[in-house]
């Protein structure tokens, strides 16, 4: 999944702006929509395998629609199969813009978090770059941001040259760190809440009860943050390819999305309720002042536990971004490779593979070094990301079923993953809800902050 703690942290502030009730509803609904569209991606891939095998055999009988353990069917390739060259180029451009935007944002968020952590640890100067409402950074802070972005780019570019399967150990180590960091965030806020209650608001007229109000004007930031965090459809083909027990993939996806939803809600609600209007755009920055005294954020110097919590939590988005960038870059490069003619791919497989890896990873790194306003990037890219999460799977579900009906019979669209949720009526409802959410978020995101 393309989501990471950085966008959970962004969602904390967004949930406070829109209100906890609207935040809970949005997370649950978007989570459910992502489960459905991910199920449809599995169905589409199974149909693609069935059609491909039927064409090779010259068969016009019922398709054997199942996922293959030998062949991988990426988004762009599947769009070409079911929607022709027009579908191929539309999906390739959409996917490239969305994932380039994601990678650009990852660079900016990493550099911002790392420069903040370094300044917090070794100097008395604050270094806050890229988030909404931040003051103009100093020259030293800006230089540190560029150094961190460049260093991050060198590491993730090297890892992006490695295939999915060979990244397994690297990804597992990062996963355990994320679990530890999330647990530390939740536990420390719970202890502080139970000890002293929520922090007192600093703004005039701000009340702790404001956290539960509903403010539709904050839906734009909330929506884009959540869609960014739930992004997973693009790498399902790569992620499920090495899995042997493919019949259980729907349960795995449902379990993963459910777990992420619970964690997002826990972190967002706890941070929003505890920090009130003191909450930063990236919530992990609030642990910069964690001392480990008097419930956690008491006065005085940091204890050893305070330093441990501060460094662990401040590094959490940065460490996670070290793992998510290569995953997105590899998936983007794999889809870009299908833009080459089949003859060139077969004659120069390594050249096309690594040139696409270069094109996928390097431009976002350069852009991230030059542009640091990641909160703006999250809003813009989050709207584009929804095309991959909702619109593209819905369109492919309908188009692939119609293709099978027209060429192989009325029941040829059935796969091992087909259920009552696969019906076109359900697809239409999801698409309608997606359009309403998208347009509402777009309107709200265009409202200037000073209107609030």
Structural class: mainly alpha
Write the element-wise H/E pattern from the N-terminal end onward: HHHHHHHHHHHHH
Distance between the termini: 33 Å
Q: Which residue ranges are poorly predicted, with pLDDT under 50 across at least 5 consecutive positions?
A: 1-6
Main beta sheet: strand number and arrangement?
A: none
Shape summary: globular
Estimate the mean pLDDT confidence.
Answer: 80
Determine the number of helices (DSSP H or I, runs of at least 4 residues). 13
Please render the helix and strand layout as text.
Elements: H1 5-18, H2 20-57, H3 75-122, H4 139-160, H5 168-196, H6 219-230, H7 236-240, H8 249-275, H9 304-337, H10 342-347, H11 349-370, H12 374-408, H13 424-445
Helix pairs in contact: 1-2, 1-6, 1-8, 2-6, 2-8, 2-12, 3-4, 3-9, 3-11, 3-12, 4-9, 4-11, 5-8, 5-9, 6-12, 6-13, 9-11, 12-13
């Amino acid at each position: 999944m393309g989501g990471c703690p950085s966008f959970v942290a962004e969602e904390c502030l967004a949930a406070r702006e829109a209100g906890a009730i609207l935040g809970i509803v949005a997370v649950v609904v978007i989570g459910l929509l992502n489960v459905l569209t991910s199920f449809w991606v599995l169905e589409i891939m199974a149909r693609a395998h069935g059609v491909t095998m039927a064409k090779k055999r010259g068969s016009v009988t019922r398709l054997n629609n199942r996922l293959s353990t030998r062949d991988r069917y990426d988004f762009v390739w599947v769009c070409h199969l079911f929607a022709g060259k027009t579908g191929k180029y539309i999906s390739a451009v959409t996917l490239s813009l969305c994932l380039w935007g994601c990678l650009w944002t990852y660079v900016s968020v990493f550099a911002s978090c790392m420069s903040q952590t370094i300044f917090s640890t070794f100097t008395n100067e604050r270094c806050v770059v890229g988030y909404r409402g931040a003051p103009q950074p100093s020259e030293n802070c800006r230089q540190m941001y560029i150094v961190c972005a460049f260093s991050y780019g060198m590491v993730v570019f090297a890892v992006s040259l490695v295939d999915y399967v060979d990244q397994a150990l690297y990804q597992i180590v990062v996963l355990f760190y994320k679990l530890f960091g999330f647990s530390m965030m939740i536990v420390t806020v719970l202890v502080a809440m139970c000890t002293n209650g929520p922090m007192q608001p600093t703004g005039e007229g701000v009340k702790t009860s404001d956290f539960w109000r509903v403010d539709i004007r904050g839906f734009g930031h909330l929506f884009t943050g959540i869609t960014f965090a739930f992004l997973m459809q693009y790498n399902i083909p790569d992620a499920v390819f090495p899995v042997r027990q493919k019949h259980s993939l729907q349960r795995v996806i449902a379990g993963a999305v459910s777990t992420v939803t619970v964690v997002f809600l826990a972190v967002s609600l706890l941070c929003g309720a505890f920090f009130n209007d003191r909450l930063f755009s990236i919530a992990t920055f609030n642990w910069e002042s964690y001392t480990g005294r008097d419930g956690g954020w008491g006065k005085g110097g940091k204890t050893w536990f305070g330093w441990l919590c501060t460094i662990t939590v401040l590094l959490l988005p940065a460490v996670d971004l070290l793992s998510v960038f290569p995953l997105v870059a590899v998936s983007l490069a794999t889809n870009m490779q299908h833009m080459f003619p089949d003859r060139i791919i077969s004659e120069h497989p390594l050249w096309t593979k690594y040139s696409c890896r270069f094109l996928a990873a390097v431009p976002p790194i350069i852009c991230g070094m030059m542009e640091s306003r990641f909160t703006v990037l999250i809003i813009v890219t989050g709207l584009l990301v929804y095309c991959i999460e909702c619109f593209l799977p819905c369109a492919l579900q309908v188009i692939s079923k119609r293709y099978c009906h027209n060429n192989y019979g009325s029941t040829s669209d059935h796969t091992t993953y087909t259920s009552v949720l696969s019906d076109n009526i359900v697809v239409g409802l999801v698409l309608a809800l997606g359009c309403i959410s998208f347009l509402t978020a777009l309107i709200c995101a265009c409202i200037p902050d000073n209107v609030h």
